[in-house]
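Re-run with default settings, no changes from the original entry. Doing this only to confirm the output is reproducible before filing.
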Amino acid sequence: MEKIDYQIKEEESGERIDKLIAGMDGSWSRSQVQQWIKDGHVTVNGTSIKANYKCSLDDLIVIEIPEPEPLDVEPEDMELEIDYEDEDVLVVNKPRGMVVHPAPGHYSGTLVNGLMAHCKDLSGINGVLRPGIVHRIDKDTSGLLMVAKNDLSHEKLVQQLVDKTVTRKYFALVHGVIPHDHGTIDAPIGRDPVERQSMTVSERGKSAVTHFTVLERIEPYTFVECVLETGRTHQIRVHMKYIGHPLVGDPKYGPRNTLSTGGQVLHAGILGFQHPRTGKYMEFNAALPDYFTELLHRLRQNR
């Protein structure tokens, strides 16, 4: 474990310690430093502190840089649809049925396993089971994800999600015929107190906003585009159920009498963000997968 001693200069007095340490080395992100502080790897004058500690003149900071934690997840060669890649970021089109990252007891066959085989440089901010993962989509949701290849890129991409500047457009097939062409669902989402594996609209939940546009009415269903303003767990699935139009094929939030589709009919089709290094806006479009287009075709023929 590398150890660094540093004494605060006059011009650094009053600065937050996490910001100051992150600025010492171009490869350290602020989130990474905050985790070091939380884990007790940073002391000031021999005492543990919090990330918002304001430095004082002549404070002695000791930083113990932990050794990288070995990954328990093995790389697996698999065919991945990479839409874009450079030294900082990667955009992948995840197929339906693939889990994004491993979980205890389920360490293989995930997108992360494939990414680890595809490239060796992935950010470590989210820990050993989720290297590079900035945001997720459900197992049975297909579509685009951005992946960070270093910690600084990870931090900047996450900040864009926090600032709501990332473009995330989904395409979904829902039950019922939505009468109006556009709508906004502004309803907080939290953990269901009864079904702990499910989410629900709740006053105690976190703010959640989904905008939708009707693309086509195929009675008794509606083909819609949903734009996420926030990114809560199962947000589109929960919000569309909330307004009485649950996703077709959704085993968790949909009606029992639904089409047999192997999961919710939902595709993350458009993803846009500012490149973490250049600041240039980039937008990617993934066409509807075959299962989705074939289902729409059958429904159009039968109406």
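The longest strand covers residues 209-218. The chain has six helices and 15 strands.
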